[in-house]
Amino acid sequence: MRDGDLGFEALRDAHVAALTGSLIDGVAHGPGGAGYVWSRSIPDPALNFAYGVRRPDQFAWAGAAALGRARAPAFLARDDEEVALLRALFEPAILHPARWMVARPLPVPAQADGAVTLQATPAPGADFEGVFANLSDAPAVRTHLRRTYLPALRAAKARPGLVPLHLVLRDAAGPAACASLYLRGDMAGLYNVATRFDRQRRGLGTAVTVAALRAARARGAAQVFLLMFPPMFPHGPAGGAPEALAARAGFRTLCAPTLLCTSPS
Question: What CA–CA distance (Å, rounded) separates 14 from 189?
């Protein structure tokens, strides 16, 4: 798929397809093309949001879809026009800018980097979990990850046409950084990029991101995308990969949706 073919809808659908069966449990379809993406075990609005909502009847349907799953309604708007329409339907709205970023995979080096291990299974292994569960030194964040994200990742199931790949980068002290690739056709989604809090600011996040881009190239991906949420979601599905890190690895912003929330978290 070429860059010109990648708009909000294409990236949204690729994102949902990549995470369904692990962090995302499904999509409910509503009137006029509206949808509601939901996660059974993870309450974060980054994984529980409505899209395609522009009318009062769609808004009412999306609100019921969220509340019926014990989630605060949240809406992913594709552009400023949709933001304005949603803000006319409910106030106060808490706005959080997001970024869909895309990069072309990097050439595979002649000799593989022995510091990075790859696991091609739906659920990541213990080394991956040990990094991801410790991406922050805040006890509340670590508790949230262990109670919600890790059970969802452990329960991930194989899906036709989707190839999961989990990477772990080691340094002298052991597993230090991780990332997940979900490959589908000629595209791959990059998620779960994290560095242990006690090994951060050493370039390991960039290194594991570069390794993921090379792994995507080796498996036939033409483009890699990631969804960047703001710092309020440091433990989200792309958590641990700040925009500057992604840019250093070659990612550029292709579209900038906005997440509108009805509650602070």
Answer: 8
Q: CA 209, CA 213: separation in Å to the nearest integer? A: 6
The domain of 36 spans: 3-99
Q: Is residue 4's pLDDT more than 70? A: no
Residue 200 lies in a domain: yes
Query: How many domains does one find in the chain?
Result: 2
pTM over 0.85: yes
- pLDDT over threshold 60, residue 90: yes
Q: Which residue has tokens 């995308």? A: 225
Dist. CA 224–CA 54, nearest whole Å: 30
Mean pLDDT (whole number) for 110-133? 87
264 found inside a domain: no
Per-residue DSSP letter, 148: I
